[in-house]
Amino acid sequence: MPESPEVQALADDLGRRLAGHEIRGVDVLEFRVTKTRARPLESLVGRRVAGVTRRGKLLDVTLDDDAHFVVSLGRHGWARYGGAEASVTEASVTEAPNAESEPPPPALVSIEFDDGTTLELTDAGDWISLGGWVVDDPFEVPAVAKLGPDPADPDFTRADFDAGVVGRRKQVKAVLQEQESLAGIGNAYSDEILHAAQLSPVAHAASLGGDELDRLFASTVGVISEAVAARSGVPIDQLKAAKVAAMQVHGRTGEPCPRCGDEIRDFSFASTTAQYSATCQTGGEVLPLRKS
Fold it and tell me: Where would I find the Formamidopyrimidine-DNA glycosylase catalytic domain in this sequence (predicted)?
């Protein structure tokens, strides 16, 4: 799932490349991507891109008439430059280094610009999670309207963190991923944050003491801000691979924990699987893994 560090780098790249350019054509190959039926994505034709920003895990493309093209990348969505520039397959983006190549996902939306650039929006999932809205105000998009404060924002404060986390009778990993509480964090970076803070992912936020909350705040800001800085300038076709390579525990099942040397383990979380170090995070307790 794209998370704030990679989406920020993507937004920066798109903004540098597309700002000032006119949209000459839009080809929607999967109708379910369009979320504003009264304002289809084809209505973008003739407008110029004023800039591209990030809102949580979403892209916000501002247009010259102050309209907005908001893109939710969902669970498996991404963007790539098409045409002559599509020389690197998406497999190199989505898979870990040295993994076997897989066919790139299909483009569900193709957008052509006046300088010959083609931007393709893709989705590699078994179900379509990519979505696009054409709106006058990005807060018309429900996923944007509900966003909480963003730990990648330089103005993010301890008070913002405490308002979303302290006293919550919910597993702390779930709180970190709850977009209404803290914007931009998903499964991967919540694993990394909790490992850095040496906290159990299944502990309730309400049970955390002062020192634990201090560590969690520092790790939340530190992990996200460091990842944003590390991804800056990475070509968009390499961002997902860079994310995979940088993970300390997420996706590292069976490998030694870089802090304590214990084996990194899987555990079942919601509808997915996450990773942790029992020695570092749970006092040696092995968390349950759903049987397949």
Answer: 2-128
Instruction: Confirm if 175 and 165 have CB atoms less than 8 A apart.
Output: yes
Q: Which two tokens stand for residue 292?
A: 């397949």
Backbone angles phi, psi at 75, to 5 degrees: -85, -35
- Residue 248: CB atoms within 10 A of its CB come to 18
Q: Would you tell me how many other CB atoms lie within 10 Å of the CB of residue 3? A: 23
- Let me know: does 23 contact 1? Beta carbons within 8 Å: no
Helices within 78-157 (DSSP H only): 91-94, 142-145
- The reported pLDDT for the residue numbered 95 is 36
User: Any residues with CB less than 8 A from the CB of 167 and at least 6 apart, and which?
Assistant: 205, 206
- The 10s digit of each residue's pLDDT in 96-130 is 344 456 788 999 999 999 999 999 999 998 899 99
Q: How far apart are CA 1 and CA 184, in angstroms?
A: 11
Of the three residues 145, 168, 199, the one that is the final residue of a domain is 145
Task: Summarize pLDDT for 11-39 with one digit per residue, the tens.
Answer: 999 999 999 999 999 999 999 999 999 99
Q: How far apart are CA 97 and CA 114, in angstroms?
A: 35
Q: How far apart are CA 258 and CA 264, in angstroms?
A: 9
Whether residue 292 lies inside any domain: the answer is no
CB of 120 within 8 A of CB of 82? Answer: yes
Q: What is the pTM of this model?
A: 0.92
Low-confidence ranges of the chain (pLDDT < 70): 84-101, 291-292
- The pLDDT assigned to 96 comes to 39
Please tell me whether residues 139 and 239 are part of one structural domain: no
The verdict on 56 and 101 lying in the same domain is yes
Q: How many folded domains does the chain comprise? A: 2
The pLDDT score that the predictor gives to residue 101 is 62
Which H or E element spans position 279?
A: helix 278-281
Cα 152 to Cα 57, 98, 219: the distances in Å are 11, 31, 12
